[in-house]
Design goal:
globular, alpha/beta
């Protein structure tokens, strides 16, 4: 069976996911078979495995860092928030239904067999499992039925690294207070602390580090600086949503919907040379971009209402009338149509008129469509005409059925013989997540936008896979240089008894 080590944090977005990915990469570089594991993930960014099962993207990133194929066993429970008090519950990659928080809390103990079956199966196939917690283990109101932090550490017999975020301030209080709120046996399972997202001279921290070690009785395994790496972050508050690229030749706007999902669809565009991606939620910041993208959302009708009330819908339609390329992915594609109805209450119920930019109608059903697909762009019109005949790969996750009237032009031809999406002039829609990940597709789109603008995107073709590998190696380098890996290996070897 594999040895285990767990990364927990003092709060959400403390850097657990990235540190877990870094450890996965380090262990892989050192010759071990390694897999990530998070028993319960709450995120709107998800992924479809080769088996057609749904899992959180954080564990996909960690699997890539570990050099293994993403597997739903790495994230047996995924919660996708639907409202402020309820989520869609996905177990072993398949939807169990929508549940209010209290209902799910009562159900959690029944999921332990699913969690342990997934974990034990992975542990038999690997040398090391890198587990990730969620939020904070010091949520004392939820500790009784915990299945993702200390509860999971106990089940996996995994020693814990506790990570604090110094960038938000109060990191010593974060770490000391978190440990102090835990039970004695749980405190003993924390073997070291890590300070993350540091800016400045680490020597100025030394007195505080010494005092923290004295107060907690735990060694500080290291201080990670604010690393300059470009790794997908599933958190909706991710820093990438506010990034700007100063030397951008192309200006692409992604509408930052309140319930935006799968915004990692645009990571390849963000990383492409000469391309700037802005996430906009105010019509006054829209400007005159070269392309507007409406992304996926977990609540299409509610977000379309917001789009309308915010003034963004009117502004986007003005850009469309001027010939700007407009593209919708998944929920964004549905919004571009004539009407959306949810008579079965799959996303809360209701009916609403769409933006009217594509001649399609969508009806929500409770059954979720999940699949990995290959496709070819059909005879594409408008700005993206150079995309015609280009092959691409991606995945679909949606609960809506979109129909095209006679005479409407589909956008993509799927390898299974079905058609996907719709196009009309410079307006394009598709259910395909990962649309821009395929190099040929991305280069055709960006080349077409550059030609429309009368510019040329110079430089070599951008290899997304090679770029990701480079970033994982940079992350591993940062982990090795700033953490005491000898201590971490001793913790791994000794387990919870050390």
């Amino acid at each position: 069976m594999a040895k285990a080590i767990m990364v927990q944090g003092t709060m959400s977005n403390a850097g657990k996911s990235i540190l877990a990915a870094g450890l996965c990469r380090v262990f892989r570089q050192d010759g071990y078979r390694v897999a990530p594991f998070k028993s319960q993930n709450m995120a709107l960014n998800s992924f479809i495995t080769k088996d057609g099962l749904e899992m959180g993207r954080a564990q996909v990133v960690q699997a890539e860092a570990a050099g293994v194929e993403p597997d739903v066993r790495m994230n047996p429970i995924l919660l996708k928030p639907v409202t402020n008090v309820g989520s869609q519950v996905i177990v072993n990659g398949e939807v169990r239904g929508n549940m209010r928080a209290a209902e799910y809390y009562a159900m959690k103990p029944t999921l332990v067999p699913d969690i342990m079956a997934a974990y034990n199966s992975l542990a038999k196939e690997n040398d090391i499992i890198v587990l990730e917690g969620a939020g904070s283990p010091a949520e004392i109101n939820l500790a009784e039925n915990d299945i993702v932090n200390m509860g999971m550490a106990k089940m996996a017999k995994a020693p814990v690294l506790l990570v604090g975020d110094i960038d938000r301030g109060g990191v010593f209080a974060q770490l000391y207070g978190t440990i102090a709120l835990l039970k004695k046996e749980e405190q003993a399972m924390i073997k070291a602390t890590v300070i993350n997202k540091f800016r400045g001279d680490v020597e100025l921290l030394r007195p505080g580090l010494t005092m923290l070690e004295t107060l907690t009785g735990k060694p500080v395994a290291g201080v990670l600086p604010m690393l300059d790496v470009d790794i997908e972050d599933e958190d909706s508050l991710a820093e990438r949503l506010g990034r700007r690229k100063k030397d951008a030749l192309l200006d692409i706007v992604v509408i930052r919907l309140p319930r935006i999902s799968n915004f990692t669809d645009f990571a390849a565009l963000e990383a492409a040379p000469g391309v700037g991606v802005r996430y906009v939620r105010d019509y006054r910041a829209l400007g005159t971009p070269d392309m507007v993208i409406l992304p996926g959302t977990k609540s299409t009708i509610a977000d379309l209402r917001w789009l309308r009330e915010s003034g963004l819908e009117a502004a986007i339609k003005k850009l469309a009338a001027r010939g700007t390329a407009i593209m919708g992915i998944c929920g964004g594609y549905q919004m571009l149509g004539m009407r959306i109805s949810d008579l079965e209450g799959a996303e809360g119920g209701g009916e609403i008129g769409g933006m009217g930019l594509l001649p399609v109608e969508t009806e929500f059903v409770r059954e979720k469509h999940r699949t990995r697909v290959s496709a070819t762009a059909r005879n594409v019109g408008g700005i993206f005409a150079p995309l015609s005949g280009t092959g691409l790969e991606g995945y679909e996750i949606h609960m809506g059925r979109t129909t095209l009237p006679e005479g409407a032009e589909p956008f993509l031809q799927l390898s299974n013989g079905m058609e996907d999406g719709c196009q009309a002039g410079n307006i394009y829609g598709s259910y395909l997540h990962g649309f821009f990940d395929t190099e040929a597709c991305r280069e055709a789109v960006l080349g077409a936008l550059a030609a429309q603008k009368g510019i040329s995107l110079q430089g070599d073709a951008f290899d997304l896979k090679a770029y990701k590998e480079q970033q994982y190696d940079l992350l591993a380098k940062g982990v090795r240089e700033n953490l005491d890996m000898a201590l971490i290996y001793r913790i791994l070897e000794a387990g919870i008894g050390g």
